[in-house]
Structures are given as C-alpha cells and as structure tokens.
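Archive entry: two folds, one per protein. Generate the first.
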Amino acid sequence: MLNFKNFLLSLSILFSIFSSPVFSNPKVLKVGAIPDQNQDVLDKRLNLFSKELSKQLNVEVKYIPVINYVAAVTGFRTKDLDLVWFGGLSGVQARLQTPNSVVLAQRDIDKEFKSVFIVNKNLEINSISNIKGLKKLKNLRFTFGSENSTSGRLMPEYFLNQAGVEIKHFKGKKAGFSGSHDATIALVNSGAFDAGALNKQVWENNLKNNTKRTSNLELFWITPEYVDYHWVAQGDLDNKFGEGFTKQLKSVILNLDINQKSHKQILDMFNAKRFVNAEAKQYKNIEDIGRKLNKIR
C-alpha cells in the first residue's frame, strides 16, 4: 500500500510540474541541461545563463532541472524543453528523436574533449602511457558515470574495447554506473570502486577545488580527443518567439565575452573561454560509436 501511495504521489508531482504555467506558456523559453555533475553547480550555472538570455532577448527564460540524462532527451523530444545543454551522445539521441532540431554552439574546449580514467591509490597501479595499458583494469571494480554520458561512459567504453577490455572483464562481470562525474570521483575515492572514468574538466576542477574528495585518487590515463557538449534548440522557436529568434539566440550565446564581468561568470561556470559555432555533422563519429555500442538504435 505504501509503494502504491508513493507511486500516486510521484504521478501527482509530475503532473503538477508539467501542467504548471511555465510549461503551458509558449512565450517562456525553457532551458535544460543533462545532470552530469553536482546539482548546486548546475543550478548556479544554468540560472546565470538563463538570466543573461532573458536580459538580451527580452523574453522570459526559465531553467528546468531534470533528474537524469533520459529525462533531458525526453523533455526535448516532447518539447517541454526548448534549449538544452547536451553531451555528445545525449545530443545525438535528442536530435534523432526531434525533427528539425538545431545545433547552435559548443564551447571552445568541446572540439577536443577528453575523459580520464582514475584509480584508488590503495591499488598501487602505475599510470599508463598508451591505450594498451587499460588491460590493467581487468578484474577490478569499475564504475562509469551515467549510462548515457559521452565522457563518462560512451567514449571510455569505446577506448576500453579498443584495448580488448569489455564490461564482462571487470570484477563481477559488470560495471557500476554512478550517475554523474562527481559521484564517480566520490565512489572511487571512498574505495567503493577501484577505478572509474569521467569528464576531464570535472576531474581537474575537483583536483583544484576539492582536494579532500580526491585525496585517495590517482590519474591513470587521459584519453585521445573527441567532440562533446553542445547547445541544441527546437526547430520551431521562430514560430513561438518571432522571425529571426533562433538566429538571435545563437548570436547571444556566441557573443558571450569573457572580458565582461557578467559573461565571465557564466563562461567560468561552463569551464570555457567562449562558445563557438557547431554543426550536427561534427557529431557523426559520436553517432557511429553510439550505434556500435547499442546506445543508439
């Protein structure tokens, strides 16, 4: 009975959220993002970004948090979200499910993005210099981030496979899925897992700002480069907000200037110096790898 009551409560909460004035008002630009790290970080980042968009575009902009990567893709597909900060894989998934959606921009770092593999210091495993060394991770307790993360799952698994390592080779013939990059750090640092893979930017931020959280960790390997995060917009924003709106929106994002204090705050939160133009064709390799690993069908 208790579970049934909880189920009904969950339904009522979801109904109240998606039937709220924010979702029913077509004049509100609804912004979302994959929950790839600590929610406090995401809230601050996306609220600052939304405030700047609202100021420059003269429309109401609302940041809508989501519970996981799938919810971000689903919210975009159902048009409950107009503009979403996706990773490489989740962006491809969303665009394939949403006709006429548009890639607007990526950060200056996203053309050459990297993941890192980390290990718990107690293992006393030396770092490696090439991909073949990933075989050292066999028979260890290993965790990825979210199942649909590009930098925390897709590309790390791809590189593992290139080295002849499959999920079945980890201890228990399975891998963990922490849900976010921050959680991966916490789990490996605590010893709950021996090793893990995550976004290089999140790793470096934690090394700099959260030394206690990384005190039991060692960098094991840095991956080759690949393309990752990007802003994706619905294809009908001009119909909702007026002709030329999508072009205006893109211009605002691309013209965020690190020399302006308010813009610098936003760019710093995104670990970027600027946003640059991006195109869907840049993510073809991510799509191909996603299909190969059965993350896209």
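Generate the second and append.
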Amino acid sequence: MKTSAKILIVIFCYTFLSAQEIIPSGTREQNLQQRWSDAIKTQKNSPSEYLIIYTFERMMPENSYIGHFNSEWEGRKKLGEYLYPELPVNYLETLKGKDSHSDKNVMKELAMIFIMKSETVIDVDMSTIDVHYDLANRNVIWLGHSNETESINLVQQLYGQTDSDDLKKDFITAAGLHKSAPESYTFLKQIIENNNSSELREDAVFWIAELDNPKALPFLKGIALNDKDENVAEKAVFALYNIKSDESTDTIIDLAKNAQSHEVREKAIFWLGQLAGKKAESTLSDIIFDENETDLQEKAVFALSQLDKGQGIEKLIKVAKEHPNPKVRKKAIFWLGESGDDRALEALIDMVKR
C-alpha cells in the first residue's frame, strides 16, 4: 500500500511539476476551440502556472519582430526551437532579413501565449517564433498551428470572460495583431462603441487603425469628429496619422480645418507637422493666415517647423515677415532660430538689419 502511494505521488509530480515540458494537445481534425477546451481539462487541477501556446501566420516586414528583447536571453532558445524541435538548427536564422533596409513582406508565425493558473488566464503574451523566449520552467501545452479567424474568435471569447482591464488590454492588442481577419475589426469597433472605459476604448482606437480594413478610416474620422470623450477623439487623430495613406492625410487636413473640437483641431495640426508633402505644408500655411484663433495659428507655426528636411522654412520666413499678428510672427521667429537652417539664419539677419 505504501509503495502504491509513492508511485501515485511520483506520477502526480511528473504530470504537473516537471520542468518545462512541451506537451502536444489536440489533433489537426479539432478546431482551436476544441483543442483549447481539452487543454484546460487536462490542467484544471494543476497547482503550478503553465502556458498554452498556439501559432498562426501573419504577413510582416522581413526585418520586424514581435516579442520581448532581453540581452540576457541571447543564449536561450528561440521560441520556435521549443515548439518545433525537429526543425533544422539554422532554420530560424533564415527567417531574418539580411538587408536591414529591406521593405519586403514575408509570412511569419506568431505565437499566442497564455499564462495559466488552473483554468484561468492570468496573463497574455505574443511573440514571433524567431525571437528568444523565456519559458521560466513552466510546462507548455502546445496546441499547434491555427488560423487568424479561429484565433480571433478565441480572443473575443476570452475577452468576454475576464473582468480584468489589464487582461482586456492584452486581448485588444492581440486583436490588433490579427490584421487580416474581418472579425478583428468588428470586435474592436464594438469595444469603441459600447465600452464605458476610456482607456480600453483608446487602446481599441489605436489597434483598429493597424488592421488591413478600409472601413477603419471613415470610422475613425467619425470618432474624431463626434465622440464625446475628448481623449478617445484625440486618439483617433493619432490613429489616422498612423495609417499613413493619401486618404488618411486628407482626413487629417479636413479635421485640422473643420473639426468643431478645439482639441481635435490641435491634434490634427500637430500630426500634420509630422507628415511630409505639399498638402501638409499648404494646409498649415492656410491655417496660420486664415484662422482667427491665435492659439491654433501658433500650433500651426510649430507644426510647420517640424516638417521633414526643412520643408516648412520658406513658409515660416513668410510668416515671420508678413503675418499681421505679432504673437504669431514672434513664434515663427523663434522656430526659425531653432531650425539651424541657413535660409532661416539669412532671413533673421535680414530682419534685424531692417
């Protein structure tokens, strides 16, 4: 009887406490939801933290990676070496772009990593498999490969099961990384429209702009124009800037000129200053000379000074010399002095001589 008890104890310890096992779970015939449910059942009495991991493919720039970067992890395995021990030794190195300036897009495998305690998700992580990863001696329940649609459906389900705002933020981030799944847009849009938390709505606004969905741009414009939460409306302007297309630039120009909210106009003016192109330069100049509010004129002067490669210098010189408002002229002179541009120096010397 004593011997049997000892055997039971050894089996229990091996099942739940053995260090850093990779335990395959489920079959290819099962969908992700079934594999997840089976994994939870096998570990529901586990006294220790463990990981549930699956992967899906997403298109990414060749030289971009998702994950944690810690110099102390360099000697450790890459995540893919844990998950696919049969891979050739140097395979993961071949995923890295050799040209640091390459803008080539390639398909990469992204891992969804759930830190679990019993049946509960306590944290969420994401990493491409070509990045070093610290499993922290936790067992891994490896669900294998999935697809974006199944994955985002699981993310939505887990989002609805938690009361933790920190976890909800992680799930929102995860949704933003499912760029090609239409369900990601619907999920984030619902959060923006129906959630009471300003922080969660702001996060969803940011990530919805990262999706490959043409509906995001007009939706974000509507949020910037009409949302009652100024923080969310301003975040929508930043999200539009991040889209970086001709259409998003035109939208920001429209907001800078016509938005009812002073704060939204300020943000639009600021982000115009971070964009290159004649449209941005011309719009900022129009605001400086046509706007009635001095504060917005001064914001446009600053934005003009931020245009790349001194693009706004000539317009700033004109403002410094010709603007009817002395406060605006003074602001233009200040930013000309800060620019370090030879044209600005010559103009300032010329104004002093007068």
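Annotation attached to the second fold: The first helix runs from residue 2 to 17. Strands lie at 22-24, 49-61, 105-117, 120-128, 139-145.
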